[in-house]
Amino acid sequence: MEKLIKSAGQIEERPEEHESAEHRIRLEKVEKLRALGIDPWPQPPEEITAQSTKVIEEFVEGEERSYCLAGRLMAIRLHGKTAFAQLHDGAGKIQLYIRNDVVGTERFEQFEKLIDLGDILFVRGTVFRTKTGEITLKVVSYLLLSKCLYPLPEKFHGLQDIEVKYRQRYLDLMTSEASRDRFVKRSLIITQMRSYLHSHGYLEVETPMLHPIAGGAAAKPFITHHNALHSDFYLRIAPELYLKRLLVGGFERVYEINRNFRNEGISTKHNPEFTMLEFYTAYKDYHFSMDFVEDMLRTIVQAVCGLLEVSYAESVLDFGSPFKRISVHNAVIEYAGIGTEDLTEEKIDTTLRTHGVTTKGHSLGEKVYALFDALVESKLIQPTFVYGLPLEVSPLTKRDPENPSQAPRYEFFIAGMELANSYNELNDPFDQASRFQEQVAAHAAGDEEAHHYDTDFIRALEYGLPPAVGVGIGIDRLVMVLTNTPSIKEVILFPTLKKKQ
Q1: What b/e readout covers 154-178, taking b as 16+ CB neighbours within 10 angstroms?
Q2: 177-323+382-490: CATH superfamily
Q3: Buried b vs exposed e over 313-325: b needs ≥16 C-beta within 10 Å?
Q4: Is the pLDDT of residue 155 over 80?
Q5: Of 41, 4, 8, 36, which is closest to residue 22 (Cα–Cα)?
C-alpha cells in the first residue's frame, strides 16, 4: 500500500516548538550531506532547458524527450523503491517519478532520507504519461540546489496567519496559487497601461523621489535628511509639479508610473507607500480626460480579464456600458437622499449637523463636498465620474470660467473607492502664487497637508505652461478591483507594517 510520508498538506500553522524541532532535524541533514561531500547550495550542473508548462505542452505520446528542470518540491510520496514528487517552478508544476533502479540505490536513499519539502532541486529526465493520465518526468538524475531549513506552511489553504503572510510574502507566494496569480495580473495591468499610453503618443519619464519642497497633493509627507547637503528632503507625495515642468519644457504628453509616500494612516484602502499612474496632456481639458480614462480602463479590463463585467465583493462591475457622470451636488441628492433645499446657504449647516458631518471648510461648495465624502463615496459601486468639486479643495486647478467657485475637475469612483483624479491644470502664475500663499497660511494654522510655497515652480509657470489636463490613477486600487481583492495589502508585495517587537 502506498504511504504518504511527506506533504506540504500535512503541516498546519506551525507551533514554535514544532518549527524548532523540524529546523534542528533539517540542520542535521545539512551536516549529513556535507559529510557525504554534497554541497547543499551548489550551482546547477547543466543548463536548465525548460519549465514545467513547456514540458507538458510539448509532450507527444510515444516520444521520449529529455529535459532539465529546476524547482521547489511541494509534495513527496514514497512507495517501496519508487517515489513521486511534485516540482513547482516559475511557470507551474509537474510530477516527478523517481526509481531506485534508474537513479541508483545510493542516490535514491539520499532522496528518501535527506530531501525535504521545500528543497529546490535540479532534475534531468524523460517525459511519459502515467496510467492515471498525468504527464510526468521520469528522473534520470537529480541534484539538491538549495536546502530548505524550515517546514512549509499548509499548502492547500495557504497561510492563515495574516501577519506571517505579509511579513514573509515568499511563503505566501510559495503556497498560494491565488496570490501568485494576483501579482502576475498586477504586472499585466501595468504592461497594458503602458501599452495604451504609448499607442497614444505619451512619453514615459522619471522624476525625483526626493523633493526639497513637499507638493503636488494634499498630504502629510515623510521627511528625511541629506547629510552631504545639510538639508531636509521630503519623500515624494506626488510627481505633479515636476511633470508639469516637463510640459513647460515642450513635452506635450508625458506619464510616470511612480511610487508615492504619504505619512498617513494605514487601512484596507491605504498604504503609506503606493503606486500611481500620473499623466499630462497639453492642449486638452478634463472632458477629454474623462473619455480617455474611460476608454483606457475599458481596454485594460478587456485585455487583463477577457471580459468587461468583473466581480468585486458582492457586485458585478460593468466596464462595458458608458460610465456614469454626475456632479457632487446631484450625487448628494441622489445617493444620500438629501433634498435640494437642504443644500442651500441657509440650511447647509443644519444638514451637516443632522448627518453628523464636520468640515474645516467654510464655503457652500466645501460643505456639500464634505457631505459627499461622508455619505456618498462608499455607495458609488459602478464606474462613476464625479465633477463640480469646489475650488477650495483644488489648489493646483484652473478656475472654471463658467462657475468660478468650482474646479474643472473630476474624481473617478468604483467599488466605493476613489480610483482617479483629474483637472485642468492651473497655468496662471499669479493665481498659483496667490493660492500657494493661502496654503502657506493654512499650514501655519496647523494644516499639515497644506502645500508649501514652491518658488521654482512659479518661475517655471512664468515661462509658460500650456493649457493642459492631468490625471492620477491609483494602480494598487485598480489591481484590487480587477483581482476581487478587499485589502490593499493583498496587492502590494511587501506592504508597510509595524516593526516586530
Answers
A1: bbeebbeeeeebbeebebbbbbbee
A2: Bira Bifunctional Protein; Domain 2 (3.30.930.10)
A3: eeeebebeeebee
A4: no
A5: 8
Q: How far apart are CA 485 and CA 106, in angstroms?
A: 48
Q: At which residue does the C-alpha cell 483644488 appear?
A: 394
Across 437-451, b (16+ Cβ under 10 Å) vs e yields eebeebbeeeeebbb
SS3 364: helix
Contact yes or no for 8/75 (Cβ under 8 A): yes
Strands 409-414 and 384-387: antiparallel
User: What is the domain partition of the chain in residue ranges?
Assistant: 3-159, 177-323+382-490
| 30: CB partners within 8 A, 6+ apart | 40, 147, 149
Q: Which of 96-100, 292-296, 399-403 has the lowest mean pLDDT?
A: 399-403
Distance, CA of 358 to CA of 352 (rounded, Å): 7
**257 three-state secondary structure:** strand
Any residues with CB less than 8 A from the CB of 420 and at least 6 apart, and which? 293, 411, 412, 471, 472, 473, 474
For residues 27-49, give the mean pLDDT: 95
Domain 3-159 has CATH 2.40.50.140: yes
For 18-56, b/e burial (b = at least 16 CB within 10 A) is: eeeebeeebeebeeebeeeeeebeeeeeeeeebbbeebb
Alpha-helical segments (H) within 176-317 = 177-199, 240-249, 286-305
Contact 121/70 with Cβ under 8 angstroms?
Answer: yes
Q: Which residue has the cell 497633493?
A: 217
The DSSP 8-state label assigned to residue 204 in this structure reads E
- Range with lowest mean pLDDT among 142-146, 151-155, 365-369, 388-392: 151-155
CB 190 within 8 A of CB 257: yes
The confidence band for 18, taking pLDDT boundaries of 50, 70 and 90, is low
- What distance lies between CA 100 and its chain's CA centroid? 46
Residue 355 identity (one-letter amino acid): H
How far apart are the C-alpha atoms of 501 and 487, rounded to whole Å? 24
Q: Would the pLDDT of 19 be above 80?
A: no
Q: State phi, psi for 41 to the nearest 5 degrees.
A: -140, 60
Q: Is 188 exposed, middle or buried (0-12, 13-18, 19+ CB in 10 A)?
A: middle
Grid cell 464606474 is found at 383
Closest listed residue to residue 110, CA positions, set 211, 218, 193, 29? 29
The Cα–Cα gap between 150 and 279 comes to 46
Cα 409 → chain centroid: 26
